[in-house]
Amino acid sequence: MQIGQRVRVRGLKDGGGKAIAKKVGEVGVIKEEKIVDGGKMGYIVTFPDSTKTWFFPDELESVA
């Protein structure tokens, strides 16, 4: 996955909370990489409603 790539949220590993859970199925754009949870890589994704949050790579799928 790359910065600027469009992605869809496939699901969440840990539930995340109601606001983040609502993002499942939504499409956003990767804005930057982030090191999360003990050195693992994640991505900060922004959505059309101007919200942003981070996800693990396996929670996202590429959108053409």
Give a description of the structure.
- The chain has 64 residues and is mainly β.
- It has one domain (6-62): Roll (SH3 type barrels), CATH 2.30.30.
- The protein contains 1 helix and 5 strands, in the order βαββββ.
- A 5-stranded antiparallel sheet has the order 4-3-2-1-5, with no helix packed on it.
- A hairpin with a 3-residue loop joins strand 2 and strand 3 (40-46).
- The radius of gyration is 11 Å and the shape is globular.
- The two termini are 12 Å apart.
- The model has no long low-confidence stretch (mean pLDDT 90).
- It comes from Pseudanabaena cinerea FACHB-1277.
- It holds the Pfam family Tsr0524-like.
- InterPro entries: Tsr0524-like.
Largest sheet: 5 strands, antiparallel
User: What count of domains describes the coordinates?
Assistant: 1
Level of helix content?
A: under 10%
The main sheet orders its strands as: 4-3-2-1-5
N- to C-terminal separation?
Answer: 12 Å
- Summed over residues and divided by their number, the pLDDT gives a mean of 90
User: What Rg do the Cα atoms give?
Assistant: 11 Å
Beta fraction: 35-45%
β-strand number = 5
Summed up, the helix count is 1
* CATH architecture verdict: Roll
| Structural shape | globular
**Helix and strand pattern:** EHEEEE
Q: Flag low-confidence runs.
A: none
> What's the CATH topology label?
SH3 type barrels
Determine and state the CATH class.
Mainly Beta
Based on helices, strands and strand pairing, what is the structural class?
Answer: mainly beta
Organism: Pseudanabaena cinerea FACHB-1277
Pfam family, one: Tsr0524-like
Protein name: DUF2862 domain-containing protein
InterPro entries: Tsr0524-like
